[in-house]
Predict the 3D structure of the following.
Amino acid sequence: MARRRAPRPFEVGVSGIVGQVRTTPLPPDPQVVADVWGLGADVRWRVSPMFGFAAEYHTGRGLGTYNGGILQMVNVDTLNSIRTSGGWCEAYVYLTPCLHSHWGYGIDDPRDADVTADPLALGRVQNDTYFANLLWDANKVCRVGFEFTWRETIYRSLPENSGAGFHSQVRWSF
């Protein structure tokens, strides 16, 4: 099977989103319309056919639906959208044409003042993730993978939390 790799030695991309989110609380409170916007930039550098780097940066407001802001869209107290910035970077290596590994780090950092202080709402103000995986492309349609992650989460009104995770993957493409 041919090695799956970036088609070009260097790639750069940008992305964006603009919109609004509407939140309707219980009467008599009025509907709240909050802004959603985001800007992203990504880069991939294939240093050699077997090794490279990839990274992404994002910033915006109300990005919870798009996996930003540690999945938080609006402050549950004010119903205003949450501002956030973050990104990730990784190094990858192809050990064989079908076996590859990715090692990296990601951060999501909502603005602390935008996140609710209510401990019951689990307001998260920072999330750091370290990851390493091993992926085997068995053939053109089947991939099997294993990943280890370490996450550290800081809450606005609760103690910090950290822990390890082990994930497996079977992907069938058609």
Q: What stands out?
A: Strands lie at 10-23, 32-48, 51-61, 83-94, 99-110, 124-137, 142-155, 161-172. The radius of gyration is 19 Å. DSSP finds no helices and eight strands in the chain.
